[in-house]
Amino acid sequence: MVSVSQAEARRFVLGRQGLWPGRRWKGRGSVERALRYIGSVQYDPVDVVGRSHDLALWGRVVDYRPEALERALYRTRSVFETGGNVQIVPIEELPYLRIAFERKAAGDRWRRFAEKSASELAVVRRELERRGPLGPSDFRGPGERRIENYRARRGSGLALYYLWLRGEVMIARRRRGEKVFDLTPRLLRRPAPDVPVATAEDHLILGTLRQLGLASGPEWLAYAHARIGRPSLRTEWAERLRRWQAQGEIAEVEVDGWAGRRWLVGDGATDLESIRRSNVPAAWRPVATSTDEEVLFLSPLEWVSARGRAASLFDFEYIWEAYKPAAKRRWGYYTLPVLWDDLLVARIELRVERTGDGLLRVLGFWPEAPSVPRDRRFATALGRGLARLGRLNGTTRLDAARLGGPSFRTRVAAGFRLPAT
Fold first, then answer.
1. Is the per-residue pLDDT at 78 higher than 70?
2. Which of 327, 346, 324, 328 is nearest to 337 (CA)?
3. How many beta carbons lie within 10 A of that of residue 88, not counting itself?
4. Measured between alpha carbons, how far is 76 from 73 in angstroms, rounded to an integer?
5. Of 93, 302, 325, 384, which is the most exposed, with the fewest CB atoms less than 10 Å away?
6. Total structural domains within the chain
């Protein structure tokens, strides 16, 4: 069994998610190529210095703009948004995800809703067929049923959400933030093929490990169970692992200092071996600055750092506090981890002032160690990262008054003014 250091494991996980050693996608179609490689990004509407999914793609794609994602979502439809926990995924995943959609909608809660709301669902289906793309606000009238629900304020809105959860409809576009839906077959260029249940489950479970990079058996099982929506998966888990290992679909590794063993997908072994030999896999080579030359601000919902994974991979505490009451926040409303080379070295809270020609404002900065801001290379890398984030938000001005001492701010400002690469 292969044994790797924690640094090697960390680089492998970052690299398999397209975050190290730098951005590797550029040009037309780069959003689709990035998403096919990493699997998905999670959508979130909160926009302070960019929405979470935009920050995720910004950290992987050179000169990323949200318009490129919107084109892929609503024009070419090469990617789409799943219902529930909204993931943006390649359209090729749709045939495999159907089984997960159906199981979620068949759960007790949604099954009872469908039975109780059968007539309402029939009306919504009929109106979509007759009128084309519709959002919740298109269903208004004296007969509309008012409800109190996190997902909708009218019965028709919740019916639309249920049909989205089932995969019967997809988001055709967004209208001032409102989701506008249409029937799935009408939005697709060609019908999605049918995939056998066993094939779909294998694909989704192995795809989960591909996104995790490295995972213990219990961690992988928890994510896989959530993805395929079948509680009995636990009873057959050991047998699946034996079968996949024998077939070369997965492999085991030991990580120095980590309790237990970790799994990775079989085709990741070559990349891990390159890292063990102190090489960067050829497909990972950056097309612009490396993460050593320019920091990344990780999206709040990154696979490598969200949901407690930052603690095990980086010995770094990260909880996104945007949805916590202000009095309970430790760091700030939109505080992001700072990735420098292959380490999370600081937290930073940022905000874009969108009036006039815009301003990127630093609200707080918390280095993990006092030595971090003393490093001139880090100051330059931080300045470059802030400049690229400013360009994403349409501003070239920086307010770094709360960033730290005068000499550190001066060096960061110098990095901020460096030419874009």
1. yes
2. 346
3. 20
4. 7
5. 325
6. 3
Residues 248 and 270 in one domain: yes
**Residue-level pLDDT at 351:** 97
Whether residue 311 is found in the same domain as residue 411: yes
Asked if residue 136 has a cis previous peptide bond (ω within 30° of 0), the answer is no
Q: Which spans in 145-235 are helix H?
A: 155-166, 184-187, 197-212, 217-228
Distances from the Cα of 142 to the Cαs of 95, 119, 126, 135, 145, in angstroms?
39, 16, 19, 17, 8
Q: Are 30 and 61 in contact (CB under 8 A)?
A: yes
Tokens of 195: 């995939």
Q: Which two tokens stand for residue 252?
A: 């085991």
Q: Which amino acid is at 67?
A: E
Helix axes 155-166 and 118-131, enclosed angle (nearest 10):
80
Tokens, residue 409: 């701010």
User: What's the predicted TM-score (pTM) here?
Assistant: 0.95
At residue 124, what is the residue type? V
In tens, the pLDDT along 201-231 reads 999 999 999 999 999 999 999 999 999 999 9
Closest CA to 305 of 56, 3, 126: 56
Could you tell me how many residues make up the chain?
A: 421
Q: Dig out the tokens for 196 from the structure.
A: 């056998």
- Nearest-5° angle of CA 163, CA 168, CA 169? 80
CA-to-CA separations, 221 to 208, 218, 245, in angstroms, rounded: 9, 5, 15
**What are the respective helix, strand and coil percentages of the chain, to the nearest 5?**
45, 20, 35
Kindly report the CATH number assigned to the domain that includes residue 149: 1.10.10
Q: Is residue 112 a part of any domain in this protein?
A: no
Pair of tokens at residue 371: 């030595």
Distance CA 385, CA 160 (A): 40
Phi/psi of residue 179, nearest 5 degrees: -75, 130
User: Helix (H, G, I), strand (E, B), or coil: what is residue 262?
Assistant: strand
Q: Return the closest-CA partner of residue 224 out of 261, 247, 250.
A: 250
Please report which residue ranges of 230-375 form alpha helices under DSSP H. Answer: 237-247, 269-276, 309-314, 371-374
If asked whether residues 72 and 159 sit together in one domain, one would say no
d(CA 86, CA 41): 9
